[in-house]
Amino acid sequence: MKNPYLPLPMKLVKNFTETEDKLIHTFTLQYLSEEDEKSFSYMPGQFAEVCVFGKGEAPFGIASSPTEPGFLKFSVAKVGVVSTALHLMEEGTIVGVRGPLGNYYPVEEFKGKNVVIIGGGFAFTTLRSLATYMLHPDRRGDYGDITVIYGARNPGLLLYKEELAAWEKSPDINLITTIDRAVDGWTGRVGFIPAVTEEVAPSSDNAYAIICGPPVMIKFTMPVLEKLGFPPERIIMSLENRMKCGIGMCGRCNVGGKYVCKDGPVFTRAQLNELPNEY
Amino acid sequence: MIVSKKEIPSFLDKLISDYQVFAPVQKGSYTLFKQICSGTDAVLDGGITKLPVKEIFFPQSEKLFSYNVTNEGAKLEAPVDDRKKVVFGVRPCDARSLTLLDNVFNNDKYQDPYYLTRRNNTILVGIGCNSPASTCFCTSVNGGPFDTKGLDLLLVDTGDAYVVEPVSDKGKELAEKAGFAAASDADKAAAAKVKEEAVVSCRVNTDGLKAKLDVNFYDPIWDRIHEKCLGCGACTYLCPTCHCFDIVDDAVDCNGCRVRNWDSCAFPLFTLHGSGHNPRSTNKERYRNRIMHKFKYFVDNFNEIACVGCGRCIKNCPVNMDIRVVLEDIRGSEARLDS
Asked: Residues B35-46: pLDDT tens digits?
């Protein structure tokens, strides 16, 4: 019987301050052996329990893509005991990773479809994984147009600036970035995600929308997507709830009868419409 | 088969040499399941134990693994308890609760090795309930005072002796090895009579309850129904089917262990996000979740009600919340606590 509580030890090789406010760090973790890497086979949208030995573990979406071998990436906000310990951690330290956990974005269903990715703030981690996965030269041909609408309060709070710069230039992806209020030197759009989504007006024909962000952004973007004609079955969301076990046993992350950890975190709008709003 | 009550201590002593044996023992005014060293320690006529039998399989606090971590790597050790056990004197409601918990710890995707290894290595010997308590309502939730679900052997108390009824092959083997005498027709008739006379007088009508819960998540009834509840969580700790737990580290620097402890959906911290957001922020949501989990979500997921009618939550609630009244209230009918 495989023990689902045992973490895989990994080495923290990079502790990178991702945002200007220093509240988000991106951690690059390296496998200790090839067997370890083989044992951790994941898909975009899945998460893992990352543990700081001596402090505890916490669930984070995997920000790297399975098309990037050799390491895992997590972008983590400093809010609690485990995330604070991670932020303070020296490179070279061993941490534990338990997973991959949960389901993933339905990338098979996306084949032959246009994909619109909408992200806000630091809820862009598994969206980065998804975009990177679909943009891989071996896979790019599987999908139609890929549009990314990504916003943050100000330019300094956008994650993954290197990738954004590369996507900006790439013909394979249509990137729209936006910030809440204009600042000098900003060349992207200005405005909240719902309004910008309405301006950009991505077509819902043969398309899926994947949306992650703060609840208020989701709340106001949802009617825009509906207006654009996205049916609830083709609006994909990823939920977060407090978790411990990650395997559907400890009882806290349920939304109705579904566990975010085991039955999610990825749900369609249609599935969520059937569940109570306890998230 | 039949065994006289006088023979039970020596039977248990024999078991103790081959198994870890757990039985109800007296602790002050109540009984608890404990590992026993002597057959005479077992108290078999004390009704249901204060705490349910789940703690033998899913302890209140349990080490998942220990670790020793350096910059070179991590040494993890996960001892899984695979000692052979006999749990003697389990009541049918408690035995049934384990079959419900099996769904959780052996779900569609993951297996919990700690719980399942103990389950697979344990023989459950039950004792039927000749005189169910006033708080018992097992027959309202698909159980019964002589229900055999989850048991390996059932003992029926006929006065001076127990009539032994094998349920599983494991139980049959244990009984045969013990060399119990064959039960006479008169013994069997006495057992049948005891079963017939054991009456669970309280009947909670659960007809239509699930259908109601399917549609009443936003019903104003939830604003009212939780009001008396203090959110102390006692019911969740005493409930044989509650399985929520927390996972924490107990360590000095990088040497220590990861531990799981029982937790409770009655507590606000249970669902509190790091951001400060809480999807079940008030007692109303938490009480609703507890009822929904047992009588709707569990039914949706596993086709069974996650309540065995043991009545512990009724007996021990500091403000006399009575789940039977709550369920009747939800169904929209008057509570009927007597037949």
From this structure: 999 999 999 988
CB contact (8 A) between residue A251 and residue B263: yes
Record: contact B271-A242, CB cut-off 8 A: yes
Closest chain B residue by Cα to residue A247:
B110
Chain B contact set for A242 (CB, 8 A): 270-274
Nearest by CB: A257 against B76, B80, B297:
B297
Inspect the interface and report whether the beta carbons of B293 and A248 lie closer than 8 Å. Answer: no
Q: Taking the CA atoms of B318, B322, B327 and B330 in sequence, report the sign of the dihedral they define.
A: negative
Residue ranges of chain A assigned to CATH 3.40.50.80: 114-238
For residue A163, which of A171, A175, A153, A154 has the smallest C-alpha distance? A175
- Tell me what the mean pLDDT of segment B171-187 comes to: 93
Architecture of domain A8-101: Beta Barrel (2.40)
Q: Considering the entire predicted model, what is its pTM?
A: 0.94
A256 has a chain B CB within 8 A of its CB: yes
Give the torsion sign (CA, A155, A158, A163, A167): negative
Q: H/E element holding A147?
A: strand A146-152
Question: Residues of CATH 2.40.30.10 domain(s) within chain A?
Answer: 8-101
- In chain A, % of residues over pLDDT 70: 100
> Which class is domain A114-238?
alpha beta
ipTM, interface predicted TM-score of the complex: 0.92
